[in-house]
Write a structure and sequence with these properties.
The chain is mainly α. The chain is about 70% helix and about 0% strand. It is found in: Cell membrane; Membrane.
C-alpha cells in the first residue's frame, strides 16, 4: 500500500501547520480522525459482509453434499433391505426341510429336565437402609455446635434478631 514513514508524517504535519494555521489545526485533525475512523469501520463492515456471504456459500455447498450423501445412504439401505427380504423369504421357504430334523432335535431335548436345576433361594442381606450406621450422635452435635435442622435465611435472621 502507501509507505508512509515517520519522516514523511513529520513533513505533512509541518506543511499542515503552515497552511492551516495553529488555530484551526486541532479541529481539522479531529475531523480527519473521525473520517478515517468511519472509513475503517465501513471497510471492516464490507469485509465482514463478504466473509459472511462466502461462509453462506460454503454452507450451501456443504448442505448439498450432505443431501447427496443422505440419498446415497438411503439407496443403499433400500437395496440392502430388499436383499434381506429376499434372503428371509428364501430362508423361510426351507422351513419344510428343517421340520424333519426338528423332530429328532425335540426327542434329544425331551430327556432334559428343567426342574433339576435349582436356583438359590433369596437371602435377605440383613441391612436396614433407613438407619445410618455411622451417624454422629445428637449430643455430640449439640456440644460441637453442628446444625441438626435446616433453617431458611429469613428464619435464622428472625431467630438471632435482638429483642426490643
Amino acid at each position: 500500500m502507501i509507505d508512509i514513514g515517520i519522516s514523511k508524517l513529520a513533513l505533512i504535519g509541518a506543511v499542515a501547520l503552515v497552511v492551516i494555521g495553529p488555530e484551526k489545526l486541532p479541529r481539522v485533525a479531529r475531523t480527519v480522525g473521525t473520517l478515517l475512523g468511519k472509513a475503517q469501520r465501513y471497510v471492516s463492515d464490507v469485509k465482514a459482509e463478504v466473509s459472511r456471504s462466502m461462509e453462506l456459500d460454503e454452507l450451501k455447498k456443504m448442505k448439498e453434499s450432505m443431501e447427496t450423501a443422505v440419498h446415497d445412504v438411503e439407496k443403499s439401505v433400500h437395496s440392502a433391505s430388499s436383499d434381506l427380504e429376499k434372503d428371509w423369504r428364501d430362508a423361510t421357504n426351507f422351513e419344510s426341510d428343517f421340520d424333519s430334523n426338528s423332530s429328532t432335535l425335540a426327542s434329544d431335548y425331551s430327556s432334559y429336565d428343567s426342574s433339576s436345576t435349582v436356583s438359590p433361594a433369596y437371602k435377605n442381606p440383613g441391612k436396614n437402609f433407613r438407619i445410618k450406621r455411622g451417624a454422629v450422635p445428637r449430643w455430640y452435635k449439640a456440644r460441637a455446635g453442628v446444625r441438626t435442622h435446616v433453617q431458611s435465611g429469613a428464619a435464622r435472621v428472625a431467630r438471632f434478631r435482638p429483642k426490643r
